[in-house]
Structures are given as structure tokens and as C-alpha cells.
Amino acid sequence: MQVKQGGLSYPSGHSMVTMSMYLTIAYLLTRKKANKKTRLLVYSLMILIILTMGLSRMYLGVHWPTDIIGGYIGGYLVYYISLRFVNLSEKEEQ
Question: Which positions are catalytic?
């Protein structure tokens, strides 16, 4: 199956948004009072969703694996930097 797609390919915007959004959701769900098993379950589910989205973009033929990996890296960087800002602001409030 081939989908017609216009625009730039690298990095995959879908991969970038999915990575940053689902990791942020996992963080927000587990940051308060989540035990280790719950945290592992939530993050595993989110990573499964992220990987499935990346595979679907390749299956549809709209991205190469390098596009997906680049999007994942960019999305993780957005998540990581945002998390550092949140943690800094929480420390300042205490």
C-alpha cells in the first residue's frame, strides 16, 4: 500500500509528536505515588504505542526508518528538556 504524501520527510513529525506526547503522558500518570510495577506498565504501554506508530508510517511508505529514528530523537529531546524545566520549577517552589 502506497500513500501519496507531500512535504518534507525528515524527521517524521508524527514520530516526534508521538514520542514527546506519550512520554509526557506516562510521566504525568506516574509522577505522584506510582509504584515501580505501575510505572513499568505505563511506560511499556506508551512505548508500544510509539513504536506501533513508527512502524505504521514505514508500512504506509511515507517514511524511511531514518526519518522515524530522527523523529524519535527529536521528540525525546523535547520531552527531556521540558521535564528538566518542570523539575527545576518544582524545586524552586519548595
Answer: 14, 63
